[in-house]
Amino acid sequence: MAHGNGRGFLSGMLFGVVVSLVTGLMGVYLLMVLDIISVSVIDTPGLQVVSEWTRRNLGLSVLPFAITFGLYAHSLRALAGRLDDGSPQNEIGQLEHLTDVWTSLFFGIGVIWTAIGMRSALLYALGDPSVAAQSGAFAILSRLVDGGILTALTTTIVGGVGGYLMRVIKSSWLGTRLNRYYEQQDQRHATQVEHLLRDIRESIGCLAATPSAAVYEPVEEQ
Asked: Most CB atoms within 10 A, among 43, 80, 85, 186?
């Protein structure tokens, strides 16, 4: 019992540290994207390249993507724990449904951010029709890129690939255990129904075998 409590404490503490670290990084990234602060990573050029690519291709969509994936990971972890504990079927079903909701939301963020990015890019590129007509095709394409068309296209890819990967992770990690759990629940329900029907049959048999009192009631003489 003490060993289990120790593992639970360490797991909770590690989860809290990871959540705090990720939250801090997301806050710093948000401030960087909004040009409120500037963080220099010249000593790590690889990190500089990743940071610039993320800002240019994903923008603020990183935040909802990261939050949704974090909620998905938490729900998936809770679902695995409920399966180990043998929790009731309604709790297992609710957690599985919640995991699927986060997966669908990940897809949805990609679609929604695509529409937002396309609208922003078109408004930026064609906001002034007279200027757009005189600029030429290359200038319009450049303004589309600056307006966010790369973000629109990249979020579509990230939302689709990430959503399918989330489905694969759930199916690979918990698919067999979920199927076995639901099969056991169905078998338990079938056994309960079988026992109920047997009890009803035995009760009917006992009633049929018991003689009626009216049959042996003596007839009074006139």
From this structure: 80
The number of domains in the chain is 1
Contact 170, 99 (CB under 8 A): yes
| Token pair for 48 | 């500089």
pLDDT digits (tens, 9 = 90+) for 123-137: 777 766 666 566 666
C-alpha span between 34 and 41 (Å, rounded): 18
pTM, two decimals, is 0.71
Sign (positive or negative) of CA dihedral 178, 183, 189, 192: negative
Longest distance between any two alpha carbons in the chain, whole Å = 125
Give the burial class of 60: count Cβ atoms within 10 A of its Cβ; 0-12 exposed, 13-18 middle, 19 or more buried.
middle
Residue 10 lies in a domain: no
Can you give the residue range of the structural domain that contains 98? 59-189
- The 10s digit of each residue's pLDDT in 203-221 is 887 877 765 544 445 555 5
Buried b (16+ CB within 10 A) or exposed e, 172-202: eebeeebeebeeeeeeeeeeeeeeeeeeeee
Tell whether 198 is covered by a domain: no
Torsion on CA atoms 150, 115, 58, 148, rounded to nearest 10: 40
If one counts every other C-beta atom within 10 angstroms of the C-beta of residue 21, the result is 10
- For tokens 């909701």, name the residue: 101
